[in-house]
From TrEMBL:
<protein>
    <recommendedName>
        <fullName>Zn-finger containing protein</fullName>
    </recommendedName>
</protein>
<keyword id="KW-0812">Transmembrane</keyword>
<feature type="transmembrane region" description="Helical">
    <location>
        <begin position="50"/>
        <end position="69"/>
    </location>
</feature>
<keyword id="KW-0472">Membrane</keyword>
<keyword id="KW-1133">Transmembrane helix</keyword>
Length: 137
């Protein structure tokens, strides 16, 4: 008699697993961002006129559910990768040029190397042929 709820829970889980078979079903970065937008819009919808907050929160939640239940796994994954790259570009833009590198080749052996941007003129030693040269980065 005490295991009735456990059996119902297992039956519910089996039905859910059958429903989600072959679907995207991931809480990736886009879905997390859309859920944050949904929560923010629910909080601030009282101060946004003409039910725009309610409409935006509904759209964000509908997009999350659509992406979560989509059977097109690879396009959803590609969307997420593009979003992650876009976020990285936005972060780099606001961070400035600190985290970026300047790429160049050794004049002797043509080995590819990098150095952090914004250091001015620096003396570089090639790890491959041990040639030394000065480069402005």
């Amino acid at each position: 008699m005490g295991n009735g709820w456990m059996q119902r829970l297992m039956k519910f889980y089996q039905k859910y697993a059958y429903l989600m078979r072959g679907r995207y079903g991931r809480l990736d970065q886009i879905n997390k961002a859309l859920l944050i937008v949904w929560a923010v819009m629910l909080i601030f919808d009282r101060w946004i006129p003409f039910y725009i907050g309610n409409i935006l929160s509904f759209i964000a939640l509908a997009l999350v559910l659509y992406r979560f239940c989509s059977k097109k796994i690879y396009p959803r994954s590609n969307e997420n990768q593009a979003f992650v790259q876009w976020i990285a570009r936005v972060k780099d833009f606001f961070k400035g040029k600190k985290g970026t590198y300047s790429y160049f080749k050794c004049p002797e052996c043509k080995q590819k190397m990098r150095a952090p941007k914004g250091r001015g003129k620096i003396k570089i030693t090639c790890k491959n042929c041990h040639a030394q040269f000065i480069k402005k980065v």
